[in-house]
Each structure stands twice: as C-alpha cells, then as structure tokens.
Amino acid sequence: MYVLGYAVGPVLLAPLSEYYGRQPVYLISWFLVCLFQLPLALAPNIGTMIICRLLAGLAGGAPLTNTGGTVSDLWERNASGLPMAVYGLSSTFGPPMALVVTGYIGLDLGFRWIFWILMIITGFFWVLLAITVPETRHSIILQRKAARARKKMRHEGLASASTTADLHVSQRQSLHQLFRITLSRPFYFLFTEPITLFSALYNGFLYGLVYLFNEAFPLVFGSPNGHGFNVGQQGLAFLGLAIGPLLAFSLSPLQERYYLRRVAQNNGKSVPEARMWMARAGALLIPISLFWFGWTSYKSVHWIVPIVASSFFGAGLYIVILSILNYVVDGYQTYSASALAGVILMRNLVGAGFPLFATQMYTTLGYEWASSLLGFLAILLVPIPFVFFYKGEAIRLRSPWAREHFDSEEDATH
Length: 414
Prior knowledge:
mainly alpha; globular; Growth Hormone, Chain: A
C-alpha cells in the first residue's frame, strides 16, 4: 500500500510545488510522513496499518517529483549529471539498505519499533529540511521578492495603483488549472509518446523486480527449502542489492565525462541520447544477473553466490534507471515534469503489483525457473536503451513535444 501511495502521490503533489513553491511541499509532506509513523507504531489492527501506510506513501511521494525540480533549479542542464546521480542512488540504494537494517530491528525489538525508529529518523530530517533547505523555484522567489517590495513601498507611502499591482497575476495559472493539466498530461504522454511509454515500461519492470525480491529473498534464503536464514540474516542478504548501486554510482564520472564530451562536440547544446551510453551495458547486466541468481539459488550452492548476482542486478538497475531519468528530462525539457510523472506513476503501480504474485510464482515454478522467467522478460527490454541511444533523435523529431526544442535550438541534432 505504501508503494501504491508512492504512485499516486507525485501526480497529486506536483502542481503544489509550482503554485506554492518547493519548500512548503517538502516540509508539509515530510512532516506527514513522520506523523503517520505514530499510528503505524500503535495500530491495533491490520486495517489501520493499511490506511496509514497508504497515506504515508501519498505524502512520501513528494520528493519523487520535487527533488528533480530542485536539481534543475540549482544546476544548469549540462551540469546536472552528478547531482542527478546522487538522487538516483537514493531510490536504488535506499530500499534494499532499509531491509538490511530493519531485519534485526524486527527480530530483536518487534515490528512496531521499526515505525518508532522511522519516526525518529524522519523527524530528524524534517528539522534538517526546515533549517537548511530554502525555496529554490525561481518564479516563487521572484514573486516573494516582488510582494516584499510592494509591501515596503506601501509602508513608505510610495504606493500607487501601478507600483502595488501584481503584474504577473493574470499569467499565473489557478491551482484548479494546474491540477487539470498535471492529472491529464501524464496519461497523454504515456499513451502517445514512445519515449515516455517505453521508459515507463522498463522502469516499471525494474522497480517491480526490486519489490518482488522483497518476497523472493525470504524464500531463497530463509525458507526450509532455502538457506535457513533467520529474519535478521535475511535482511543482510539484501546487502548485494544495496552494494550494486554504490559500485555503479562510482562509475558516474565516466558517464558524465562522455556526456560532456558529446555536448562539447555539439557546440555546447544538450545531447539527450548521450545519457544512454552506459545504459546499454546496464541493460545487459540485468538478465545476466537474473539467470545467475536463479540458477545459483539451490540450497547446495553457497549463499554468497546469489548475493553476488544480486549486486550485479543492483548495478544494472541503477545505471538504467538513472539513464532513463536523465534522458526523459533532457529530451522533453519544458515538458519533462509531465513525462516523468507518467514514468513514475507506472513504475510504482507495477512496483505495488509485483509482490502480490511473487510468492506464488516462486513456489509454483521453483526458484530457478521463476528467476529465469524474469530474465527472459528482461531480455525483451534490452533493446530499449540501444534504440534510444542510436535512434532516439529520430524518435524525438517525430514528437510534437520533444521536437519543440529542436525548433527553438534549445537542443540540437548530433
């Protein structure tokens, strides 16, 4: 339910940052995430937990769209690669690392202490946000400066109809208009834009695998047919999934160096397809690691072998997800928020759905063939980064939304 809230939350919260600014959305949403840990820690029944997890997910979805906007506020497009690499690490390193930590908390202290500790952590970061993160959205900063100037002029008796009027009020969309656009445009992009559709399909599949492993790992490493790990040791098995993104992150400077070289060759203009350079290798790592994981899941094979396989999956996951994120942002530029909202919506809907059939699939097909089935599906998706890298420019030229940046020379062919 938390992941389902993650799917819907960004679509609902994205307009608020445009209307009120990024800082209020961060502070209010993160405060709600912290607050909802309290009823979860005290929940008397499963119904309360389901509702509160859904609401916490809705609030927690704000950073999925807001953080990318903050990065674009603070860094120029061609300098945003490394900041986005850090952002991408949070969504691929965080989930498995959380399971490493919470496994022993649940085992030694009980599951309710997981929520108490989450409340402490989120509360600490809320205070940190309030102290250190200012407003970064340029239009909101200018509006606030103009409002302060008008107020000062009124106090000094220099006010007139022309000096105190808000000249931009007619240009600002109403909140109703913003919601109408942001609730409809992501679906339009999903079903009419090939880049958005295939990015969403690939992202959805990969995130679905991440959450599917939450159910599969306890079977492979903990069940009587597995390695017999206790709950805490099962959590440690996720270290491979956490280490993989860290290793891939260390290669980010190579990707950034290649991208900047292509930009220099393109007279300083963005080359979105260059973002997919490393994604080709990442896409190959994913099916290889899934087959490796599946066919070393036998109880007779040492447990470190499938964990090493999962680290390669984590590396491929990070590379592909980050590349797609950057490619969509660079390709659509002005309309990237709508395209990303469609990608995020699908990836989290799939992420919420995959765990529902994971246990049944692994017990019915067996650990080896269940992972192999996922590997075969991953093979079907391998061409996507290659098509984007070699033919992405032609695809963007056929898109009325992406082509606009060719026409305005914000982007150029390569």
